[in-house]
Amino acid sequence: MSISTGVSPETLVTFLLVLIRVGAWLWLTPPFGGRMMPVLVRIMLSIALALPMTAMAGDATKSVPMTVPGLAGAAIVQVIIGVSLGLVCLTLISAVQAAGAAIDVFGGFSIAQAYDPMLMQQSTVMARVYQLLAGVLLLISGGYLMLLAGFANSFQALPLDASWSSSLTAATLTSALTKFFIATLQIAGPLIGVMVVADLGLGLVNRVAPSLNAFSLGFPLKIGLTLLLVGFALPLLQPAVTTMTGFAVAAMQQMTGG
User: Ranked by mean pLDDT, which of 59-73, 167-181, 214-228 comes out on top?
Assistant: First the structure.
């Protein structure tokens, strides 16, 4: 006795292609990407997100490949699209973490690098703090919903049977990289400026009164100053995360031609 599921082969293939694009995007996009989220959780989340997006993708797609070579080619294209969209989101939102790393360098925290077992790499203090805080702000502010909505619209602007434009993707990634450096300087610039002035002040004190040995006191003074400045700057990260999230959504629209 056969059991009919009521699902056509075309719908099943559409779901699989949508799942591939969603999974590739989730693998890179904060706060879902990275080693912080277990692989099984990301797989289940990809399936949960692909289910409601299948109908949208099916309406926008004229035809899906039903042969093995055509299906393999379409799957490769969906991986490329998902990775490209995830990479542009990762680049823009990682500006917050890069700002923390810059603060570590000028504040003296870069000396205290430690092995991060979750990222499986060396990580400095403020870079890790800023990265975790950016992920938390994305969750509590609803920024992740903006990212999901922008990604879901990619199935209408760039259906499953549409061609992928490498030139448009390269231009979008270049623009995103430019915004990444500008945002990093805007977030960390004021704190770095104050610490540079503090270094100049310690240098002048050391020249005027060498017996005080100002540079021996420089490290604890700079660390205390860095902590004080970061304490004032942390509440201002919310607008920065919101702005970078908006840039990421706009970049995805530009990349898909939407």
Answer: 167-181
